[in-house]
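ping. complex inputs:
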Amino acid sequence: MAAIPIFDACALFGPWPQHHDLKVESLIGTMSGSNITRALALSTLGIYSDFRAGNAATLETCRAHPDKLVPVATLDPRAYPECLQEAENCAKAGFKLIRFFPSRQNWPLRLAPFRELLQKCDSLHLTVAVEVSNAGDATELADAVAFTQAPLLLAGVTSENLGEAIAVLRSSPKFHLETTHLLAPGALEAVVAGVPNGHERLVFASYSPLRYLSSALNVVGASAMSGEQKTAVIGSNLARLMK
Amino acid sequence: MPLIDLHCHIGTSAQTRAIKPLEFGSLKSYADQFGIDVFCVSAPQAAFDIDGGSAYLASQIATDPRARGWLSLSIHNPDHSAELARKYLVKTGFCGAIIEPDSPADVITSQGGRDVLNSLRRYSKPVLVYANSPETLLAAVDAAKEFPALKFLISPQDEHLTRITPAAMKEAVNAFFLPVAGHAERDIIATAVEVLGERRVMWASNWGSFHPAAALGMIRDSALTSSQRERVSLRNARELLG
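pong. complex structure:
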């Protein structure tokens, strides 16, 4: 497992509430020590403060580590209509993926500006990842993005809401699921068994250095998936999505 | 590394609802695979069927000498809880009592909670208390101060509570921190050791709800000395269980 190059779908840097700053050096060190060759990285400024400042910080940091970090933008639909312009700016700047944090930013998925922003992202061919932590969130999101074609990452899904996530994954091949919180024994195997090409729909995301990397990685490594399936989950699925 | 696993779950839990529930036979296989010396188990069934869940747990832990049971008690039914404690906590197979709030407002310092804790004083066994809200966390800390003869294991049940628990429980010297890897941000173990000292931080896999590989990864990534790591994963639990 350790020898396989890992492509991490979510790494963070910047300030975090009630936590020491997530330092870029710490992130890079964690990656180097764990065979993570590349990570999609995001400045937390964009989550907790201003998405424009956060996206600028993300670009700057990722440009300083071009072999390791791939920039990911975040948008906040509460900043409407400015967020639509920022989506265009992100596409022009070369961002390929946009993350949304409705739970952490405390806004509902059923929000007119968010629906419009999703349409904008789809028209700009931007892949999106959306935090769907609570029961019903993934269903709400699936309804909101019925018109989109681009791949979409479900983030923050816990084992408690796994049944709902599996139903959404079955509804369309565009949906993919981050592994971060699928920590129940058998959760990853349930996706592989319950979803067509299930192993191609799981994407490893550690949220390093905020979370324990070994916790996230060990659960994939110790799962009953085949070696080929694990390789897909920790790297090749994300590489395919980011092409 | 030898381990004592202070909390596992058998049967269907919220986390395994969409997956095949894990039974006691699988738990024994896990203990074999990871070299677990002792594992302490609760039965989620007892949360809604206190008699049936307790009887089921007693029957299961009797089949493996490494197994210990956490007896589920309810602050809403203190008399019956006292009766169950008299029945089960005198047995060596039960390591202590577990009290899980039914709601975020179910504080252990309610009259029912105090009655249950009073009834537990005679057994010299620890009490595992879940905190699922700031109110239940602060009540668990207050209860630890109010019942100094009892040892409390406080297990926060979300990320925010896990972050704030070590500082909140610092003054309650008979309270021990038992984080759940699924709710842990890095490096809560090292932070807790810094705040509480290495003797008041313990380890559990929460097998049955969470994959043990997650909790093992948490210990592996923690910035601890080898001596602190051994204390957290083994020696503290050994001293707690007696």
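Chain A is about 45% helix and 20% strand.
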